[in-house]
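Review box. Two proteins, two foldings.
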Amino acid sequence: MDLNSTTSTLELEPQTFSKQSYQFWTLQIAGWLGYAVVVFLAIIQPQISEPDFNSEGQFINLVVETLSGFTLSYFQWLFIQKIVHLPLKKTLLFSFISAATLGVVFNIIKLSVFKVVVYQQHWNEAWNMLEFGGWLLFSLTTMLVWTSIFFIMLYNTKLQKEHEMLLRAQTAAKDAQLQMLRYQLNPHFMFNTMNAISTLIYKNENDKANEMLDKLCEFFRYSLDKHDKSKTSLRKELELLDLYLSIEKVRFAQRLQIDFDIEAQTKNCQVPNMLLQPLVENAIKYAIEPSKEGGTIRISTQKVGHKLVLLVIDSGKEIKGKSNDGFGIGISNTKARLDAMFNGDYQVNITQYGDEGSGAKNQVGTKVFISIPFETVTYD
């Protein structure tokens, strides 16, 4: 994990804690104030007109009851925070055992204070099971309700954290996969180009070799400047492709003809970095290089609905018997990158066709069709 990722993770925890703490105290204060209002309206207010009503004692009792409930529910919050990392069944079991225990404690406090403050009796004077049981039901219900609320809050936060961690892990894995596939393309292209330069030097075509080497340096300088982005605009991708083709034209001269048919509105569309280069390299390898006459590679783009459609079509080569069905590392890597980047929301079709107008009976061309979501680039 890099420094930025670590810093982001460390910053997330205080933010999550602060948000959760704010939610708890807001709920705690509002909830117990609401509890006091309900008890006043339901129990105290109807008795105010009675002649022997101890208003001062009732209000003191209500304050003590509310504060004790507030304190006990806070302890319950701290307890659930400690056990929320346990398996769900154990967390539920311990939470509700704790709630029942605190409910009994809350009931004893309420009944004792009521006896002492309202009736000036001893704290446990004249207790009976009916009276204690009647109060206990309400006390248990109160603590169980608070426990349920706290449990939902904490467990939901735990699930959110786990989901965020999973998303970060998936993103990191996807980025690593894209980088690995991209770095696999660069050495593959470099090997082919250096081999071509070596051939030119062997043939004493030093000027061509020098020109090709200069173009290669320019290509890699441009490519490495963009290595930190998994996507770029089609405009930038075409600029990179132009650099690549300028290298190959040194090698093939008039044998390599390129036909661009780029729809203007597609130039700002997002595409994976180095999407076209390996496809064109493949076409050169299987269509241009084997043919003495060379051939034409046509590159076209258009927007079809909500999709960007890219076509790389070569004019084919004369072959004997079955068509060559090898498509090299470029196609397999392209499919892997698209799958990692678009999670299945893409289409790649590779078809071969007979070029009847060429005059060659066994002339077979290859068409690579790619469809990806049309998304306008937000950076360039």
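Next protein.
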Amino acid sequence: MAMGAPGDDFTPDQIDRARRRKADVLPLRLTGALLGLVATCVLGLTPAGAGLVRVAGQTAGGGWVAEAGLGAVALQGVLALVGLPVSVRLELVNRRWGLSTRSWRLFAADALKGFLVGAALLAAVSVALFALIRFRPGSWWTIAAPGAAALVVVFSFLLPVVFEPLFNRFRPMADGPLRSRLLELVDKSGVTVRDILVTDASRRTTAANAYVSGIGRTRRVVVWDTTVERAEPEEIAAIAAHELGHAARRDVLAATVGGAIAAAAVVVLISAALHWSALLRLAGVTAATDPRSLALVLAMAAALGAVAGPVSSAASRRVEARADGYALDLTGDPQAMVAMQRRLAVLNIADLEPRPLEVLLFATHPPTVSRIAHARAWADSHGEPAPARLGEDS
């Protein structure tokens, strides 16, 4: 996709602001990601993780079930503590830039709920995994691989109705011109959407966004209340059209299927690695049936995730660009698309000049200037007036 120049659409002050925020945030994000990976690998590739799992299990009298379940909670707790200083620092930076509206009480509640949900899920998966490994040591992966794939699909259905409400409140978008405009787009797209909802993002941030989640009867388009309050109606229509593009192209379903296949592949690869006695010795265990090998399993999963990350991000960028194209086709309004991209970039203090390596490794969406260039190219190819550049008469 062609890249535009930030100066075409953003003022020098906006560009400078984005550069300064990036200088504050990027080192923290890189540090957080690196710390998480290193901590997971240290726990998994040394006896430290096995020892932690053993001690956690002993608090409930020992035994493989206690080690598998409580060991998972202990490992999750250590990783959460390792990442906490970076999370606190990032929260402070976001407050300084005016992006965070969270109280420390809400910050703590979010962190605690995230930990509890993650620990409970990991503990359940751990107990089920080691039950399989112990009772079917030679073929456990033949059940675990499809089981992991099934879990990905189940969570895609449950995410909007079980997990999202744990962190946010949702309400149907109020009747009025905006809801009517969005429902008109829904009808035009032919997409079945359960509802158009507004979520209380303003409790946490001044940033703006929208998304689509769920599959089938749980599918809904969610618009942040900050977006409703701070963007123009046609800009919000452009955002909604983009989200409808995901639904129309079955992007959530495709991502779910892709995630399910990836989860199954990870199980197969981990199964093969657990036959390597040298790796088990490195982790301080003698057999894969020992729940103390959980830390090693997490380390291998984290390493595989890090390797697959750039591939996943590249696929995501293609999907997002396709959704932009769908939105342009649906609305026929490149002016609103460009205005929306400008609005989101300024409100969210987005990186307007990402380096190619940063895009390659981390970006799940095309850069803002590329998305604006896409809208201008669409206008040119469809005989529509080109959206004005900064300083041009509209």
